Amino acid sequence: MPANQRSGQLNTSRLLREIWQYQGLSRIDLARRLDLDKSTVTLLVNPLIEQGLLEIQAQGDSGPRGGRRPQALGLRGDFASFLGIEITPGKLHIALVDLVGHLLDKRDIDVDLNTEYWLETLIPVIKEIYQQYHKVYPVLGVGLALPGVVNSAFGELQKSLLMHVVDNLPIGDIFAEELNCDIMVENDANCCTWGELVQQRFSSMDDFLFLLVESDLFQKIGSSGSRFSLGLGIAIDGKVYQGKDFGAGEFRSILWQGDPHSQFSISLEEMKNLARDKELRLRIFKEMAMNIAFIVNTLSLANIFVGGDLLPYWYELLPILEEEIKRNGAYQDRTKIVCESSSMGEYSAAYGAAAMHLHRVFAGDMSSFYQERSQKIGLEALYIK
User: What confidence category does residue 4 fall into, taking pLDDT thresholds of 50, 70 and 90?
Assistant: First the structure.
């Protein structure tokens, strides 16, 4: 590829990321932020307007000297969409997200994946979901959120207790062949973190912890198939921290007693009265908060988000979490930690699975991160030549 063409693609990728992160920038704003000539920016912008990717959203003030009024540029959200699917043994959470990051649709599908052959059951269900949406929206990619250790670079589910996977499962390649679109695969708590980074991209919040708590025990008295799981997503400098071998965020309490079915000192059998036993819930929340406080204070994080099934009991967890973080902190004059529930609630992982594609499309200066993984970015990811 000629050097000038490669430079043009890089500049376009950087320009799109700026517009995605800061809707309403003018050509002059973009030239200043990207250190480019206004004429160069115009050459990049005009074809994107003609192709329907960008639109003129408003005209600003011409300023004290008069002259031509600057035009505020923005992405057309309906140009493309991405489908996010969180996979659990008993249910699929589904979210459809447009190019700007707006949630277009969400729904649940009950599915029994508690068998050795769960993938064979899952494939036709996801194909039908994808085809239904693709008839109405231009769905350019699908993100899959899964519990366990996920090698997102190769789209492999490496290990998962819940999905009974003990060796690498190339789930990304399987669905890329079945759906014939871009597939991204990630750990469910990491997906939540990617999603929150999209939600918070207009702020300066780059470092935070996401707690994904999932259990049907919050809604009903437990049965033999019930579960309680906590996964952690860690954002550092605006990126999801995946750790060595993609194992970051896999949680087990420091008080764990050896029960292979529980992450806590309390057994899963004991947890089966979680919905009606407040004292039991407070014991779980206390243990959870002790572990979280250590991580938050050690990493000096300022924000915590919580998503999943916990939200009906958020008011019980919040004061315990704040108290433990304060008690565990070495310096009591430190800025107060902000703890809040995710706006996506139980759809946090599904939304984040779709939002991963937005980070990829608008990679900007992170382009090498995706190119090393042989993943399309910028105009190529949007199938624009």
Answer: low
CATH code, 274 = 3.30.420.40
164 and 117 part of one domain: yes
Residues 322, 113 contacting (CB under 8 angstroms)? no
Selected residue with higher pLDDT from 98 and 67: 98
Q: What is the percent of the chain where pLDDT is above 70?
A: 93
At 79, the amino acid letter reads F
Q: Model pTM?
A: 0.92
Identify whether residues 56 and 35 lie together within a single domain: yes
Same domain? For 187 and 286 the reply is: no
Segment 274-323, tens digit of pLDDT: 888 999 999 999 999 999 999 999 999 989 999 999 888 999 999 999 99
User: What is the residue range of 8's domain?
Assistant: 3-62+69-75
Q: What is the pLDDT of residue 219?
A: 75
| Least confident stretch, 54-63, 112-121, 199-208, 316-325 | 54-63
